Amino acid sequence: MLNKYLKIAWRSILKNKTTSIINIVGLSAGMAAAVLILLWVQNEMSFDKYHPGSERIYRLTTRLPKIGWIWETTPLLLADVIKKEVPEVEKVTRLYTNNWPVFNVKGNLFYEKDGAYVDNDWFTIFHFDFLEGNAVSFNEHPYSIILTSSEAKKYFGNTSALGQVIHIDSLNYQVTGVIADPPVNSSFQFHAFIPMAALLSNPDIRKNDENWSNDNYITFIKSLPGANPVTIAQKITDIVIKNKHDDGSSKFTLISLPDMHFEKEIKNSEFIHGNLNTVYIFGFLAFLLLLIACINYVNLTTAKASLRAREVSIRKIVGASRINLFFQFIAESILISLISLVLTLLLIHLCLPGFNAITEKTFSLPLNSIGLWLVLGITLFTAFLLNSIYPAILLSSFKPLNVFRGVTILKVKDSSFRKGLVVLQFCISFMLIAGTLIIYSQLQFIQKKDPGYNRSQLISFELPSSVGNKMESVSAAVKQDLLSQSNIENVTTSSQSIVHMGSMCNGCIDWQGRDTTYNPSILQLSADVDFQKTMQLKMKEGRWYKDGFVEDKHGFILNETAVRDFKLKDPVVGMPLVFRGDTGKIIGVVKDFVCRSMHETIGPVVIFNDARWRNHFTVRASAGNQSTVIAVITKIWKKYVPDSPLEYSFMDETFNQLYKSDQQASLLILVFAVIAVVISALGLFSLAAFAAEQRTKEIGIRKVLGATVKNIAFLISKSFIKLVCLSIVISSPIGWWAMNKWLQNFAYHIQSGWVLFLLAGFLALMIALLTVSFQAIRAAIANPVKSLRTE
CB–CB of 677/435 below 8 Å? Predict the structure, then answer.
């Protein structure tokens, strides 16, 4: 029986080639787009779940509820006390990443940015696939190192890395293991692991970190089955209060490993974080793209219903039951879906490299992957449900006698259902067009908005911590050599980059009249006398630091937000201030500048003058001389820091990195908006062709009676254009609401006014008009004599 159904279905597909091709191409494009999106969604939702017992693995989170501070680091000593005093905890491990070791491999120097120090239980809590060696020897020898396969190939080529030696900080480390590269759904994108014992063998580091007030380590625990995480968190809080002599303001909570990827509260983290709302949006987008493709199928099938009415009626007369006909049309839908699936796999294979480039992931198309076929199966099943049920019910419901008597076939005489689907299709397309325009405008706004400083022609680099107690003298010497170069306009040193200032303090400031209960969180920046000139900051009042002014060593500069938040009264300049235990005066107020992402509001900033903090260089090159300046920096670097590789960045690029995820999302939405519009236009094209075909006789008669091509084209086009206009009216308020919600993620954003929606509506209307007009004009210029003779 199934064989007969499929044979008849194949004949029907061949008989209606144009309709079938449009259905298959539209479905394939929609399914391919949906599968690519769902691969990304599946990856996001599966982060870190591959570790055995991941639901029992937690990361400690430190909180100061009174001031809203939340961070992921803890004291070094905490892990050992947890092992002894919290019986609900099975294992504890620590991670340290605040040190970029310099790898010396056969005389070649590399900064290992993706390196991490871990202790003995790291490889027992977390799962890693060992290709060579094992974790046992890693734990037994403090000067061991484990590399990922890609990192081993980077350093040693095709030679086996096991047993090879890497020189780090005057010591030799032996490679005791090679592991597979971390999967794309892992938070731990580290490529080199070094024992924690090696780090703590440095007496200065150990002395500094064996202090309960220094939170420099990320701590993970694995609880016993059935243990209550809330109870464990309370016991850990009690441990810290007891050992730190805390007043109880600190609180520790646990976040499970699978939930860590979507945590929102921590702004600075060592791990990859996703946005759950974005995942939901893209999951919904996948459904919408599939829906648009399926609407084409339903519309074309129901539009062609009248042409198949006699076929269905004759079959009923010769004995076919309604259930037989229902399954016959289901078979047609299955066959088209299966053909579309083959084309879908081909499209995914072709598009995957581009999709990986946009998302910066390494998705693949392994045909033996259960996950891939699960995604494909869900997509195909959804497409099948949307495509088959209604058309099959409709086509199998015709009454033979009514068909031969010429009674209207469709129950809805004006085809309102089909028109409703067209409206829905273009509602989705219009919202995607509008969303793309607004996202693009917001990103352009970010690029063009004055951040309060000039980031062009700026090159940044940092002196490594290995310079040690010579930092101040080396920094001064490097700066002097740079300033002697004719193609360098300015040079400044600071404690961090102005683009993403992360150093903060709390309870470190005092002034006359301060409410003692008010302890603001403050961004702190140490900057030299040339910082304002180099960055081109604007002063609101007072002055910047000057050479030779002894009092400037204890002078402070505030931004406008700090003055406003601290409620300082005029005159601000000259007001006494205590910052980090140093008593001095405010010498100036600088105009607000964006010192973090525009997703966040500008916070209070205190600038101070302490050379011991400064190892970050910012160099302003003269126009057109950036490559020459980089060569100069490289030469000077080798003179003062020969044992460390130079790492530099352009401030423009660093700034753009802050909005990388937004740019990726906008590009993806643009691509999928184009796909949605093409699929919608394809469906409209087919419906317009069918409408023209149904009115061939009418068009011929009108032309004989004197109707012009313009009249005929308008006659066919107007009903479709009305539907598109209706979709714009319906979807505009929904799109406006959705995009305003998205814009709220930015502290500084555009207004999603009517102009962008008007432009989106105009684009949608032009696309529809061009699509329909092609078929309308084609019908209008046809020879009426031939049309009437055919009829």
Answer: no
User: Quick one: tokens of 109?
Assistant: 């120097």
Please state, in angstroms and rounded to a whole number, the distance separating the CA atoms of residues 31 and 53.
34
Contact call for residues 595 and 455 (beta carbons, < 8 A)? no
- Spatial separation of the C-alpha atoms in residues 210 and 255, rounded to whole Å: 25
Judge residue 379's burial from the number of C-beta atoms within 10 Å of its C-beta, 0-12 exposed, 13-18 middle, 19 or more buried: buried
Q: 250: which 2 tokens?
A: 């600190």
Query: Which residues have CB under 8 Å from 361's CB, separation 6+?
Result: 40, 43, 184
- Distance CA(166)–CA(155), nearest Å, equals 9
Query: What digits encode the pLDDT tens for the residues 635-665?
Result: 999 899 888 888 888 988 888 887 887 888 8
User: CA 187 to CA 57: how far, in whole Å?
Assistant: 13
For residue 526, list its beta bridge partners: 608
Listed in sequence order, the residues at least 6 apart from 326 whose beta carbon sits closer than 8 Å to its beta carbon are: 392, 393, 396
Tens of pLDDT, residue by residue over 362-405, are 877 766 667 667 767 776 777 666 656 666 666 556 565 555 44
Residue in 296, 387, 288, 303 with CA at minimum distance from that of residue 337: 387
The model's pTM: 0.77
Longest dimension (CA), the chain: 107
For strands 605-608 and 555-559, give the pairing.
antiparallel
CB 428 within 8 A of CB 738: no
Q: SS3 string of 226-245?
A: CCCHHHHHHHHHHHHHHHHC
Give the pair of three-digit tokens for residue 126. 């977390």
What are the φ/ψ torsions at residue 232 (nearest 5 degrees)? Answer: -60, -45
Q: Give which of 282, 73, 89, 50 is closest to 187, Cα–Cα.
A: 50
75, 220 Cβ separation under 8 angstroms? no
Name residues whose C-beta falls within 8 Å of residue 462's C-beta, 6 or more positions apart in sequence. 615, 616, 617, 647
Least Cα distance to 491 among 482, 502, 500 occurs for 482
Non-local (6+) Cβ contacts of 460 within 8 A are 497, 616, 617, 618, 619, 648, 649, 650, 651, 654
Read off the pLDDT of residues 560-598 as tens digits, 9 standing for 90 and up.
Answer: 998 988 888 888 898 998 888 888 899 999 999 988 778
Give Rg (Cα) of the chain. Answer: 34
Specify the range with the lowest mean pLDDT, choosing from 124-138, 207-221, 531-545: 207-221
- The contacts of residue 647 (CB under 8 Å, 6+ apart) are 111, 461, 462
